[in-house]
Sequence to fold (993 residues):
Amino acid sequence: MRKLVFLLSLLLTIPLTTSAQKVTEKKNILTGLVIPPLEFDTPTIAEEKLPSGATLLACADETLPFFTLTINFKGGSNAEDAQSIGSLSALTQLMEIGGAKGQSGGEIAEVLADAGIKLSIQDGYESWAISITALKKDFDLAFSVMEDTLLFPNLPEDQLRVIQNGMISSIRQRNDRPESIVRRKVSEILYKGYRRGTTIQPSHVTNINVKGLKADLKNRLVPSNVIVTSSGDFSNLPIRERLNNLFSQFPKDAKAPTIEDPSYASLISQRNPYFDKIVLVKNSVDQAAIQMSVYLPPHNHPDFYALQTGNFILGGGSFNSRLMNEVREDRGLAYYASSVASFTAQSGTLSAASGTKVESVKATLDLMLKIVNDFNTTIRPEELNLAKESILNSMVFLYNTPAGYLSQEIRFRLHGMPEKYLETFPKKIQNLSIGEIEKAYATYEVPSKMIIVVVGPERLKDELSKIRPVVIIGPEDPIP
Amino acid sequence: MKFLSLIPLLLLGSSLFAETPKEDLTLVFDRIQKDIKSIELENGLKVILMKRKFSPTIACYMKFKAGSSDETDETAGLAHMLEHMLFKGTYEVGTKDYAKEEKYLITASLWAERMDQWRKKAEKAKVAGKEEEFKEASEKAKLWHKRYVMMQALAKSFTLPNEDSYLYAIHGETGYNAYTNYDLTNYQVELPANRLEVWAKLESDRLANSVLRDFYTERNVVAEERRLRVDNVAQGLLIEKFLHEVYGSHPYGRSLIGEMNSILYLNRTQALDFFHRYYSPNNAVISIVGDIDFDNAEAIIRKYFSRFKPKSIPERKSVSIERKEPVRLELQKEGSPLYMIAWPKPSMPSDESLKLDILSRLLSGGQESRLFKKLVLEDKVATEVEIDSGFPGERHENLFVIFAVPAQGKTYEQVEQSILAVLKELVEKGITDEELTRTQNSLLAEFLYGFGSNASLANRLTYYEVITGSYKTMFEQYTKMENITTTDLVSVTKMYLKPDYYHTAKILPKGAN
Fold:
C-alpha cells in the first residue's frame, strides 16, 4: 500500500492478433477473415493511501455526468460467529430501510428518490459495501446520506422485526428449487463446523437484536480495513476531503472483525466422511439436481491458473466443455451440465452440477463421474488451445465498465493476488501445458475426493447405491 | 435461456434538476443520441449503431419479431424450440461435410416424425382403453425409434458439435446466448471490438443456412428446461396456468415453453416452417453498441446482410383479452406462497400504458413507494411486493400485475385487502405533485445509470425498435412524461385498476382447502 498518489497504469497491449492467425490455420467459415489489430491501453486506476489508512482507487469515465462511490469493508458474513449468524444480512437491510440521524427510512428514501440517488448496501461472504450512485451535482447530498447511514443509523426495533419476518420467509422459500437445495447441502458437508457450512435457521434470526447489530457495525468501521472505489465522472468532486472527514469519525475503539475462514490445509487435514458416499436429499421433484464438489487451494495459489483453465475444458466453457457436450448435446439428458472453480482468500471449490429428470439420474451421474474420472488423463491439445484463446481473448471484458474493473481489483486485493497479477496472467495461461493441468487435478484428487449430493425422491436410493453407499436426509436435516 | 419478457424502461424527467434548467437533461440526451446512427437496408433490415468508447468491446444483439404468440395451439413452444435449434449450425458450421450429412439428417427427421405419429397413436389408444391398438402402436413406435437412432448416428458422424460456440469462444466472446418471450426472440453476444466481422459472418450464415440438426436430442433438452423452470417450481406453474385462465385462446394464453406433451411432439418440419416464415430481414432488428466506427460497422453489416430478400410476413393484429368472469386461480403445490392480482390494460406505446408504467413505479418502486409502505411496513402482511406493468408481453393487450409474498401468519385475503386499500386511497385522495416528481426523477435516474452497459443498451434499443417501430420511443417517452399530471395517474387507476374486476392467483400447500 503506497502513501503517495501515483498512477497504477497497466499499459498492456493484449496480443489479440496472434490468436486470429491460429483460428485461420483451421479451415472453417471464418478462414481467411482478416481481423484488424486491437491496440488497447487498459484504463487507469489511480491509487491513493489516505491518512486514516484507507485506500482510495479511482477509475474515470466522463461519458455521462454521474459517479459511483463504494466503500468496501474487508470481512463479510465470514466474520459472523455461531451466535451472530445472519446478523450482517439483517444489519444491511436495517440500515437500508431504518433511516439515520433521526430521519426515518421513508423520509430518506424520499430524499434519495427526489434526486435520483441510488444508495445500496451489499453483504457478501468476504466483504461488505455501501455504495452511492448519483449525478455529479448531487454529490454532497448523496455523500451526506451515506455518511449518516454509516455513522448514525437509527436501527429501529420495529423495522428489525419486519426484516426478521422477511428473513424467515426467505428460509421458507429456500426449498423451492432443488438446485438451491443441492448447493446448500454441499456447503454444509464441505464446511461442516464452519460459518460457511452453517445454514441460517429461524432460531438464528430470532436471536438477532439491535444491541448486537450496533456492536457488529461499530467493529466493522475500521479505516485500515477499507478500500474505497470511485468510478464515473468524479472530476472536481471533494471525495478525498469528505472521506477523510468520514473516517476521522469512525470509532477509535473499533476492533476489526475476526475472520475464521478455514484454510485449504485445515479442510483437507480432516477426512470428510462423505468422500465415499452419496447424500440423497429427499424431495419429490420432477427434475433432480446433482452436484459433485471437491476442495481446491486458495485463489493466490500457483496452481490457480491450471485449475481455472482445466475447469474451462471440463465444464466451465459452456457449450465448448466436456460436461455440456456429453451430458446435454450428445444425449439430451439435461438442460444444464457445467462446472465452476471458485476461489476465496483461504480455499476454493470445484463443483460439477446438472439437473435431469428423475428417471435419468443414475445415467447422468454415471456419465458425469466418467467424464470427471477420465479428465485427468485425456486432455487434448485442441481443448487446451481453445481454453487459452477464449480466456485470453475475453480478457478485455475485465475492463468493460469502470465499476466492474474496480470490483475485480477489490477481489484481487482481498485474495492477496500477486502484484501485477493482471499483467502476468496472460503469460501464465499461455505457458500452461496439458501435463500441468493434469497434475493439478491429480494433486487435488479430482474426483476421488469429490462429495456427491443428489436432490430427488427417496426411491432413487436403490439405483444410486450401485454407485456409492447412500445416506438419506431431508432438506432441513443437519448433516449427520 | 430466459423466457420472461423485458420490462420496458421508462423515461421521465420534467424536473430532475429542480434547481437547474431542464435543458441540462436535454443536453444529456442529445449527447447520447449523437452517438447513435440508425439505418434501414433495402431489404427492410433495421440496424441501430451506438458508440461507447470506454472499453474495446461490442455488444451485438439481433431480435426477430417472432415469439410464442406467433405459434398455434398445436405448436406451442415452437418459437423457443427454434431458438435452441439455431445454435445447431448450418451448411458450413457444425458439419464436416454437409453434402454427405444431409441425406441422413433429413431421413432421421422423417423417421422421427413417424416415430412420433405412432407414439401419438399409442397414447390415444391407451387413453381409450384399446389394449391391442396400444400394443401395436407401441411396437411400431419402438421400431421407428430404433431406425431413427441408427440414422441419427450416421448423421452425427458428419457433425462438429458446437462449432459456433467454438468459433465465438476463440474470438473472446462473453454472454453468447438467446432468449424467447411471447413477443420476440433475441440472439446476443459480446466480443472484442475488432471482431464485428466475425459476428456478421456467423450471424448472417445462421439466418441464411441453418439446418436444425439434432432436433430430437434437443427436444429432450427443452423438456428438461420445462421441468427446471415450470414443473419443479410452483411459481412457474402458477404463472403458466394463470395466463391460460385469463387469456384462454388468446396468443398470450399458451404456455411459453410449451406443455410437456406439446414439446415432445414438436418436429423439425414445423420448426423449419416457422423459421422460413418469420426469420426475415424485414422482421428483424440489429443493434451494435460499443467501440465502433459508424462507417466501418455499416459497411460490414451491408456486406453480409444485404443479400437477404424480404419476405411477406403474415399479418399479426393486436388482440384484446376477452372479457369474462374474473379468474380466481388456486394452485395446490408444494412451494412458497405467492399472490398475484391483475388487471387488463392496453399495451405500449399507448399513453395509457405509459401512465400505468409511471403508476407502477409510484406504487412499488422502493421503500418510499405506497405498496411497500402499506403492505410491508405498516400492515406487515407481505415481505415482498412488486409490479409488472406489461405482463406477459407488449404486442397485445396485457396485464398490470401486482405480485406479493405474504408474511408468515398472514392470509392472502389480508394481502388483497391491503392492496385494494392502497388503490382506493389513491383514487379518493389523489397523488401529490411531490410524489409524481419523485417518481419521475427516480425513473429517469435509473434510465441514465443503465447507460453503463453495452449489452443493456443494445437489448433496449432493439426491444423498442421491435415493439414500437422505433428505438426513439425510448427517448421520446420522457418528453411525454412532462405532460402527465397527477390527475392523469388517478384517472388511469380508476379506469383500469378497478376494485370490482380483477383476476387473482395464489399457491396453496398440497391438500389445503
Summary: The longest strand of chain B covers residues 382-391. Residues 1-23 of chain B have pLDDT under 50 and may be disordered. Chain B touches chain A through 86 residues (CB under 8 Å). The first helix of chain B runs from residue 23 to 34.
